[in-house]
Amino acid sequence: MSRSTKIEIGKQKPEMLKELWPGQYEVFSHFEYVSGVPQVLFLVTTLKANGKPNVCFHSWSSFYGDVGGYYAVMGGMGMYTHTYQNILREKEFCIGFISPEYYDGCIKTISENSEDADEFEVGGFTIEPSRTVKCPRIKEAFLSFECTLQSATDLSGKGICALVVGQVQLAAVEENNHELGKICGKDGFMFNVHSPKSAVSGEGQTTAVAILDPVRIMNE
User: Fold this and answer.
1) Which listed residue, 120, 122, 202, 215, has the most CB atoms within 10 A of its CB?
2) How many domains does the chain have?
3) What is the pLDDT of residue 218?
4) CATH number for the domain including 173?
């Protein structure tokens, strides 16, 4: 299959990429937009200093482990956010993977996130007690990880976003979560396609929520 012409872009932001909001290219690298890499979406739950539950809609992460442990590697965690401060203070957090039908509730937790807000109520989610950490899980999540803080690193040194690594202590998994129809369907994982932009013109403002579509199924 033939490929279109490739545009090479370096560490310096191209002039054709214009800000849509102040500080856009400080919070996000220009590589974020010209690459168009989809990222899985999920919710991070923590406890605020006053004991109220906090919910953060997040992406920019990966999950990996070996015999030494399984880890949630969360990039792009704003160092100014409740969630980051809660994680540093409590040394723990939960992750909940939730299907696209709950998207609107997830978005509400972004705008209605005051210190006194119960963000489970804001998003319309149900508290489910955790077993290994104090912060609650989300009952509506089809997959949850209870995590303890492993490390937090300011990769760029700019004090904007941190890379947070948590070690999974327990997973709560729905019994049909191994089925491809569940993983890839409308009731499975949702992905963030974050405003991909043309590497030539800089145009493009559309953000999408996507689901997986298997193109080949193999039996081991």
Assistant:
1) 120
2) 1
3) 87
4) 2.30.110.10
Q: Report if residue 28 sits inside a domain.
A: no
Extract the tokens encoding 39. 């990222």
Give the integer Cα–Cα distance in Å for 186 and 216: 18
Q: How many CB atoms sit inside 10 A of residue 132's CB?
A: 12
60 part of a folded domain: yes
> Model-level pTM?
0.94
Q: Give the per-residue pLDDT at 172.
A: 98
For residue 100, which amino acid is it?
P
User: Which residue range forms the structural domain that includes residue 122?
Assistant: 38-205
